[in-house]
Specification:
Length: 100
C-alpha cells in the first residue's frame, strides 16, 4: 500500500489532467473546488452552531418552566397557610363565643 502514489504516478495524473481539461481550464477547476470545500466547511460550522443554539433554547425554556412551577408552588403553599390560619382564627373565635 505504501507504493501506491510514487512521484511518477502523480506526474502521470497531472499530465492526464492537462490533456483532458487543458491548461486554461485547470485553474478554474481548482478555484471551483476550493470554493466548494470552503462552502462545505462553513455549512458544517453553521449546522454545529444551530444545534448548540437549539440546545441552549431548550435549556432556557426548561429553566423558565421550572421557575414558573416553583413560583406557583410557593403561591399555593402561601395560600394554604393563609387558609389554615383563617380557619384556626375562626375556630378560636367560635370557642371564645361558646365560652362566654
Amino acid at each position: 500500500m505504501g507504493d501506491l502514489f510514487q512521484p511518477w504516478h502523480i506526474v502521470i495524473i497531472v499530465g492526464l489532467a492537462i490533456l483532458l481539461f487543458g491548461g486554461k481550464k485547470l485553474p478554474e477547476l481548482g478555484k471551483g473546488l476550493g470554493e466548494g470545500l470552503r462552502g462545505f466547511k462553513e455549512g458544517m460550522k453553521g449546522i454545529g452552531d444551530s444545534v448548540a443554539d437549539v440546545a441552549d433554547d431548550e435549556k432556557k425554556k426548561r429553566e423558565e418552566l421550572e421557575a414558573k412551577a416553583y413560583q406557583e408552588a410557593k403561591l399555593a403553599a402561601e395560600a394554604k397557610v393563609a387558609a389554615e390560619a383563617r380557619l384556626a382564627a375562626e375556630q378560636k373565635a367560635e370557642r371564645e363565643a361558646v365560652n362566654r
